[in-house]
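Standup, Tuesday
Yesterday: got the pipeline producing structure tokens again.
Today: sanity-check two examples.
Blockers: none.

Example 1:
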Amino acid sequence: MLSITDLTAGYGKLTILHDIALAVPAGQFAAILGPNGSGKSTLLKTIVGLTTIERGAINFDGQAIAGRRTETIRGLGLAYVPQRENVFKSMTVRENLLLAVRGLGRQESVAALGECYELFPVLKDRQGQRAGSLSGGERQMLAIALGWLARPKLMMLDEPSAGLSPLFVTEVFRTLRSLRDAGITLVVVEQNARSVLRWCDYAYLLREGQIAFQGAAADLLADEETVKSYLGVKITRKDAVPT
């Protein structure tokens, strides 16, 4: 689904990522972990064409996308949900959603919105409310819904749990797991390692723009010393993977 080889990239002459190599198969929920400044967000931006690539290859669903325009990449079935500015705050929830389905016919739009409200019930309750007045968790659900309405093969999300209450952190990751179960491939940048490792399948740990470690989420949860060494957080046995 997504493969990256020997990728070095950054912003102009400032190099952030060094020789990145990873592979995310179809249907996997992969997490990109690491401390602030490790290059996590830059990696997502590079995949969608928002940085300068010095060398390397990026392949998505069998096509080379390195160097392509962002809109072209999105048109191939890749949705990117940034950490900030991911909804139209002055518009209502329903107006945001209608904008996302504007390219569909009337019947398709009605069906898509109905399915969206089933998957994100809080948005149905808040559909007449302006997006800017939503809570942080509700706004994140709206951002995820907007990405989902594009019917992507792959969704990439940047820090979806940032600033959320523990209750909404769980709800966000539960929703992402349900999207994975529905067949959408996920790549999620997170600083909250303890939370995302309970829900994802596989994780890459970045340090100073390089992949320092990688492995199955269940193995990382069981390897307290490795996680503490690379991320500075302690994983305990209570952080079990939910069913």
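Example 2:
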Amino acid sequence: MAYPTVNAPYGLIPINLIGGQVFAGANRHLPIASGYSTAIFYGDIVKFNTTDGTIVKETGTSTVSANGVVGVFLGCTYTNPSTGQKLFAQSYPSGGVVASDIEAYVADDPDQLFKVAVTGGSTSSTITPIAGTILGSNMGISQPSTNTSISGNSNIGAFNAADSTVFTLPLRVVSLVYETTNSSGNYSEVIVKWNMPYITLAAGTPNVVSYNGGHSYLNPNGQFNV
């Protein structure tokens, strides 16, 4: 039987929630600062800017922001400064938009599950199928350096880090995508969830406990803790 071929990573795509709960397209509208200059594509991971609560792109690979991620970008809307008309877009443009009403649509449920393509490393855009033994283990986020997609879709994926039991890795594999296995029985795509925040301890008087990573809503520090 011929299976579909995955040619390139496409970001994190929401499918359903833990326990088989249905994902009905629910998302939260969160602000992007006027003039924010980094492109954000459909399927990119976003986090809170810790200074003002606006949304920015998460660029971490083996770890994410200490305050955690808030979800996955599913498009945006803003008043086009050239036309004065409301614009609905698949991606937020590089170079920025000057507008006071920019809103990102974000899949922000901490229980959200995502389909994601498997790549060869932290900056790789090459699909690199993985053995099924990754199930139940952790993966990093591949962040290729540039995205020139005219579709507006992300080019990030998941990669197998050196040790998939490291608790700082941001993604947990909860299922495998059987439709895109290769001829060797390895998997080009997996289903992932956000890993939990983790604790670090620094010696002192008293010792200092810090919560890091995971989903922002589950991180007891709060999104603006710096």
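Quick observation on example 2: Residues 1-226 form one domain. The chain has a mean pLDDT of 92.
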